[in-house]
Amino acid sequence: MNETLKVLKERRSIRKYKKDQITDEQLNLILEAGTYAPTGMGQQSPLMVVVQDEEIIKELSKMNAEVMGTDTNTDPFYGAPTVVVVFADRGCIPTYVEDGSLVMGNIMNAAHAVGVDSCWIHRAKEVFESERGQELLKKWGIEGDYVGIGHCILGYRDCEYPEAKERKLYS
What we know:
Blueprint: H1 3-10, H2 24-35, E1 47-51, H3 54-68, E2 82-89, H4 96-113, E3 117-121, H5 124-129, H6 131-139, E4 146-155
Antiparallel strand pairs: 1-2, 2-4, 3-4
Helix pairs in contact: 1-4, 2-4
């Protein structure tokens, strides 16, 4: 089977991670794949911010849990040691959400291809619309009309690999 199709068929979302950090080589390959995602009219408006600082990850996790409306001791990032936050420029092109979503897909598929597990965690939009979220954007040097598209958590799973769900037929 073609290696690309194999990756697409086998990748699963993982919801329990070891504390071990992914390698810089793996991270760079994953980010490179994100930069090659298709974007409307080739505008390439999405940005990726890598967070590996444990305290910032805990803060983002707490903010995400608050948006979700759950106990802030809940970890929506499942202990993953790396979070890649994808943003897209709302003012650049009307397809900014789709563009950022394609970046997220490339990141997750590339992660699987290089032996890293992943999961898309929602609520980035709401997290970065908050006052603290806006402060983080400024701290990271992100200016403009950027919207959070998603958090892609990365790491090595600390659980059994999930079985594939039955797929719907297509015609």
